[in-house]
Write a structure and sequence with these properties.
116 residues, mainly alpha, 5 helices, 0% strand, globular
Length: 116
């Protein structure tokens, strides 16, 4: 079976997490090109690689994505507590949504049964 970017047979929560991870990586790349820096670019590139693994049903990639998304959530929460503002609230919301999509019961159930 050829590698896929998105697996339509996976639950919507996993599909959403994969697309959201790709989108975060793309936006971080655009901000890096436009502004010259993005503190989370490396994290999002790793997260996009993990999303590719999720689309190809790799258990290690799923847990790597959970760890990376959790680390991103904690960093954003720390930055917001230190004095974030409106951008901090949006980043916190997006980080929380990504973690919620990955840890949703449908995602966990599918990972336990089908991932290798």
């Amino acid at each position: 079976m050829p590698p896929r970017w998105i697996d339509q047979s996976q639950p919507q929560t996993l599909q959403g997490a994969v697309v959201f991870s790709y989108l975060n990586a793309a936006l971080a790349l655009v901000f890096t090109i436009a502004l010259g820096e993005s503190p989370f670019l490396f994290l999002f590139v790793l997260l996009a690689a993990a999303a590719f693994g999720i689309a190809n049903e790799k258990r290690l990639a799923y847990w790597a994505a959970v760890a990376l998304a959790g680390a991103y959530l904690l960093v954003v929460l720390g930055l917001m507590i230190a004095g974030g503002g409106f951008g901090g609230i949006l980043n916190l919301l997006f980080a929380g949504v990504l973690v919620a999509l990955l840890l949703h019961p449908d995602s966990r159930h599918y990972e336990r049964i089908w991932f290798k």
